[in-house]
């Protein structure tokens, strides 16, 4: 019995459509555009093979938009700031309640509630996450929570604040970050930021302060 290529092509068309719809459910704009672009490419292939050229043209336009948006994401300047807060702040309490389930994955012991320093990550004038850390000694700090909301999880915040050229921690005399986690997603994130695993669940990164600060 031969392969029914017509059925295979139709199945591929349905898969492409489902992929495009699925992309619209992503809260991360980066994931939305990447998945949508893949879906658009698949649908263009299906439409050309099926002779549906208007459908191919429409998805070609969508693909161009996805590529432009991804280019802007990585090449257009973003502003990064931090804003100090406290555990007694009403906004802080609202923020952690709003994201409590997600935050639990990163700090199940809720150490952030008693941290010495609490800061909001602010990206392009939007509160994008929460940083909580304790001073250790000799320029070392222990990060107990490094949380970024899903919308901003493209590593740009982490690369900026924990990068060698960021002036924020350098101005505070901080030379080394340490943190503890066994969350596989968080471990992958730390690897992308060039943290190294020092022992079971422990990670660290040393800043090189001789670099010129860039934004």
Features:
2 domains; Aminopeptidase; 7 strands; 215 residues; seven-stranded mixed beta sheet; disordered C terminus; elongated; alpha+beta
Average pLDDT for all residues:
88
CATH class of the largest domain: Alpha Beta
Please state the second-level CATH architecture of the largest domain.
3-Layer(aba) Sandwich
Q: How many domains, in number, for the residues?
A: 2
CATH homologous superfamily assignment of the largest domain: Gcn5-related N-acetyltransferase (GNAT)
Radius of gyration: 22 Å
Strand content is 15-25%
Briefly note the structural class of the backbone. Answer: alpha+beta
Spans of 5+ residues with little confidence (pLDDT < 50)?
211-215
Short description:
The chain has two domains: 5-75; 80-206, Aminopeptidase. 47% of the residues lie in helices and 21% in strands. The chain is built from eight helices and seven strands; from the N terminus they run H-H-H-E-H-H-E-E-E-H-H-E-H-E-E.
Please tell me about this protein's structure:
The protein is an alpha+beta fold and 215 residues long. The protein folds into 2 domains: 71 residues; 127 residues, Gcn5-related N-acetyltransferase (GNAT) (Aminopeptidase). A 7-stranded mixed beta sheet has the order 1-2-3-4-5-7-6. α2 runs antiparallel to α3. The radius of gyration is 22 Å and the shape is elongated.
């Amino acid at each position: 019995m031969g392969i029914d290529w017509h059925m295979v092509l139709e199945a591929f068309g349905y898969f492409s459509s489902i992929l495009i719809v699925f992309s619209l459910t992503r809260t991360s704009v980066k994931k939305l555009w990447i998945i949508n672009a893949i879906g658009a490419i698949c649908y263009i292939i299906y439409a050309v093979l099926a002779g549906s050229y208007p459908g191919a043209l429409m998805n070609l336009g969508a693909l161009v938009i996805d590529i432009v948006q991804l280019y802007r994401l990585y090449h257009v300047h973003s502003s990064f700031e931090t804003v100090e807060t406290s555990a007694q702040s009403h906004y802080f309490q609202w923020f952690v309640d709003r994201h409590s389930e997600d935050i639990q994955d990163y700090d199940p012991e809720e150490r952030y509630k008693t941290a010495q320093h609490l800061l909001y990550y602010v990206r392009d004038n939007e509160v994008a996450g929460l940083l909580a850390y304790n001073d250790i000694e000799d320029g070392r700090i222990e990060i107990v929570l490094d949380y970024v909301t899903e919308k901003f999880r493209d590593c740009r915040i982490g690369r900026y604040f924990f990068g060698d050229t960021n002036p924020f921690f350098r101005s505070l005399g901080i030379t080394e970050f340490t943190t503890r986690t066994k969350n596989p997603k968080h471990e992958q994130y730390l690897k992308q930021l060039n943290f190294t695993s020092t022992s079971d669940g422990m990670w660290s990164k040393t800043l090189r302060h001789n670099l010129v600060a860039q934004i």
